[in-house]
Amino acid sequence: MTAKLLVVDDEPRTAQLTAEILRRAGYLVDVANSGTEALDRVRMGSPDLMLLDYEMPDMEAPEVLDSLRSGGERIPFPVIILTGARHSPADQVVGIERGATDYIAKGTKATERKGRQRPRFLRFQRRV
């Protein structure tokens, strides 16, 4: 079964580029351009993994993570935060404490991104 990924980024070009790289790697990829749209997509069917932009106009990654964890439960799929500017250790701690699985700075080479996503996804699959 091919893994289904959700790419969430308010910059359409970045979202589409990331999605295309992942499609070429063999994943099924859906794109959301806001936190609100991402939550709507998750309600329609959970992805196997979400790549979530930190800063978006409607809500930031910690707010999306809080919404996904409503009721205090664990998020049912791994979430990797992608960020351009918000990658200080304090920002990373906030994301991880709110339920993110990992944190990747935008501009990281595509091969490294794919390399970091696959083990996170496989580790999560074994837990479920």
Kindly report the name of the CATH homologous superfamily: Response regulator
CATH class category label: Alpha Beta
Return the average pLDDT rounded to an integer: 84
Largest sheet: 5 strands, parallel
Spell the H/E element sequence. Answer: EHEHEHEHEH
Second rung of CATH, namely the architecture: 3-Layer(aba) Sandwich
Radius of gyration from CA coordinates: 13 Å
Residue stretches low in confidence (pLDDT < 50, at least 5 long) are none
Oligomeric state, counting identical vs distinct chains? single chain
Please give a structural write-up.
- The protein is an alpha/beta fold.
- The chain has a 5-stranded parallel beta sheet, with helices on both faces.
- α2 packs parallel to α3 (61-68).
- The mean pLDDT is 84.
- It has helices spanning 12-24, 35-44, 61-68, 89-97, 110-127; strands spanning 4-8, 28-32, 49-53, 79-83, 102-105.
- The longest helix is centred in the last third of the chain and has 18 residues, at 110-127.
- The chain starts with a strand and ends with a helix.
- The protein has a single domain (4-127), classed as Response regulator (Rossmann fold, 3-Layer(aba) Sandwich).
- It is built from 5 helices and 5 strands.
- β1 (4-8), α1 and β2 form a beta-alpha-beta unit.
- Helix content is 45%, strand content 19%.
